[in-house]
């Protein structure tokens, strides 16, 4: 009986080692494919969650894959970081072993995009705009042209999503150092409002929600029932 227990313990240890080695190999291969398809300078961080891994490999369905893509250019904004979660990625074991994976059906992809505030300000096109977090809103400080003059305006920016665009609507505007009519203040607020459209997000992600964070604007994005191919991943 004691020998049998020892054998079982050894077999269990070997299975654990094989499982962990399999994860490392699969993560490295997937990272290489994503790097090639997105033309990245370096391999992205890839983590296949769930234990045991070998059970997922045999079934051909991976429940939770995390991918981190740095320095992504997405239309109006650049150098953003994308953290994605692939839920229900389907890769038959035989196809994976042959190395002939040309498409990956995925039930759902959810992701977050961090847009640094300096990148958001640059995308606005507003001269000298400074953006920082103000609770659940943004504090905006920039120069706008009003009545032929460039005036400095400070306002609170309410963030939202409008038909795939990130909207920043200025409220409670104040014109620094110059007494002006309310109509001028309202016009300044309109000029301090802007829209940003992230385009060509990787993994077919589309913007669904935004929220301010300390180091940038956090953007939530999703895609459902996606078939990832080399010509459709970006």
Brief characterization of the structure:
This protein is an alpha+beta fold and 234 residues long.
Q: Can you write the helix and strand succession as a string?
A: HEHEEEHEHEEEEHEEE
Q: What Rg is obtained from the alpha carbons, in whole angstroms?
A: 24 Å
Mean of all residue-level pLDDT scores: 78
Count the DSSP helices. 5
Helix content: 25-40%
Biggest beta sheet attributes: 7 strands, antiparallel
Intertermini distance: 57 Å
Give the CA-based shape: elongated
What does this structure look like?
This protein is α+β, with helices and mostly antiparallel strands. The protein folds into two domains: 2-112 and 224-228, no CATH class; 118-196, no CATH class. It has helices at residues 2-38, 53-59, 93-98, 117-124, 182-192, and strands at 45-49, 61-62, 64-74, 77-90, 104-116, 130-134, 137-146, 149-162, 165-175, 194-196, 206-212, 216-228. The strands form two sheets. Strands 1, 2, 3, 4, 5, 11 and 12 form a seven-stranded antiparallel β-sheet that branches. The protein has a five-stranded antiparallel β-sheet with strand order 6-7-8-9-10. A hairpin with a 2-residue loop joins strand 6 and strand 7 (137-146). The protein is elongated, with a radius of gyration of 24 Å. Mean pLDDT is 78; it is low at 2-18.
């Amino acid at each position: 009986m004691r020998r049998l227990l020892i054998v079982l313990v050894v077999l269990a240890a070997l299975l654990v080692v094989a499982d962990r080695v399999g994860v490392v190999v699969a993560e490295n291969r997937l990272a290489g494919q994503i790097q090639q398809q997105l033309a990245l300078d370096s391999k992205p961080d890839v983590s296949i969650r769930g234990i045991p891994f070998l059970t997922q490999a045999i079934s051909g369905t991976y429940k939770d894959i995390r991918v981190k893509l740095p320095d992504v250019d997405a239309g109006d904004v650049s150098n953003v970081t994308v953290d994605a979660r692939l839920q229900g990625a389907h890769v038959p074991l035989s196809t994976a072993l042959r190395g002939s994976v040309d498409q990956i059906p995925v039930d759902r992809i959810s992701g977050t995009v961090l847009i640094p505030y300096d990148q958001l300000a640059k995308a606005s096109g507003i001269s000298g705009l400074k953006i920082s977090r103000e609770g659940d809103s943004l504090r905006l400080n920039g120069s706008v042209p009003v009545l032929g003059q460039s005036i400095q305006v400070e306002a609170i920016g309410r963030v939202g999503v409008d038909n795939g665009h990130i909207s920043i609507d200025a409220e409670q505007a104040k014109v620094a150092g110059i007494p002006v009519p309310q109509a001028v203040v309202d016009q300044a607020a309109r000029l301090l409002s802007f829209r940003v459209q992230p385009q060509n997000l990787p993994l077919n992600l589309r913007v669904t929600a935004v929220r301010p964070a300390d180091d940038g604007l956090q953007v939530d994005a999703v895609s459902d029932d996606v078939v990832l191919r080399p010509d459709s991943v970006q």
